[in-house]
Amino acid sequence: MLAKERLNAIIESLNKKRAVEIAVLSAMLGVSEMTIRRDLDKLEKAGLLTRTFGGAVANSTAPFLQLSYGLKESFNFNQKKAIGQTAAKLISDGETIGLGAGTTCYQVARHIRNTHPDTVVTNAINIAMELKKYPDLTVLVTGGLLNDSSYALFGPFAEIVFGNIFISKLFLGANGISIEKGVTIQDLMEAALYKAMMKAARETILVVDHAKFGVVALAPLAELSQISKLITDNETHEEDLKKYERCGIEVIVAEPIEDKTGKLV
Q1: pTM given for the model
Q2: Which whole-number Å values give the CA distances from 125 to 115, 146, 195, in the listed order?
Q3: Structural domains of the chain sorted by starting position, each given as residue range(s) with its CATH number in brackets
Q4: Does residue 163 carry a pLDDT above 60?
């Protein structure tokens, strides 16, 4: 198991139990206790947990740990790249699309270079800067308050934009998706903005990696009936995918991206 995958698994355990034990993590992940200690040290330096004798406890009192953008980006990185590439292939020439904030939506933006939309509307300043590399693309950025942990703009100023435009396809990420609670994210203000984006869009496409399944974050974002397509990676359990297909969602599984030598890119 790669280091990034271990860190992701530890975070998932902390989100579910609020505390972890080194011995249990070692057995669960199939690595030495020394390796787990180094992983916990890294997460402690990131401010996510406090080391205890034999384990660690989550620092946040919120139901879902807030990670730095860089750390979130490192989790399941290759899977997010594959999702981004697959999502970008759905974009048609000349259409207007919307992109929410987040590390998976950022990967969609990175792969837009292979497509030819007319306009991209986003509330994420890092995504806007990525898209300005393409001179023939019109990039519309909302105003609003800045969430410096996600580079997202939100609030009434941002919401006004989506009351005055139409979007063909909207790509959104999420902190969690479940059959019982639908699509959820952690920030209440951002949830309000994304609901406005969804009203402006003809269809909403959810882009989430396998770690988001079964997770319920703080703020309800969408019912499953509001999602037309769900793009995820090939580590998502097949039984989970069938459940969402039965809800009427088109499920698309993104395969890892390989170069001509067979290496992941």
Answers
A1: 0.79
A2: 21, 9, 19
A3: 3-61 (1.10.10.10), 72-254 (3.40.50.1360)
A4: yes
